[in-house]
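Ticket #4471: structure export looks truncated?
Reporter: QA, pipeline team
Priority: medium

Steps to reproduce: submit the single chain below to the structure queue and open the exported record.
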Amino acid sequence: QVQLVESGGGLVQAGGSLRLSCAASGIIFGIRNMGWYRQPPGKQRELVATVPIGSAIIYGDSVKGRFTVSRDNAKNTLSLQMNSLKPEDTAVYYCNIQTFASGSSWGQGTQVTVSS
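Actual output as written to the record:
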């Protein structure tokens, strides 16, 4: 079992910045991918950024150039630096990890609210 805990969400004005963090613990073996997803109010969950092993980082079109994802393999943490935030970035942000041993696991989510 893998546990994920997100932190760093909150309320920010448009144009501001926030940094999200995700800490993974438990039986972590054979990581295939780690990433961030978000679910805006009344909408489906969507990709923000994903870091597949051995492949290039993939960003969602709406966050390219504004968000930066980074991963610390030694600490099993994943971060998301969000700059130039817009009201449409308002969502619950979820951390996801995919491993060969445990499949896909999700964190509980952290709320990000961007005011105009």
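Status: closed, not a bug. The export was complete when the record was re-opened. Leaving a note from the reviewer for reference: The two ends are 40 Å apart (CA to CA).
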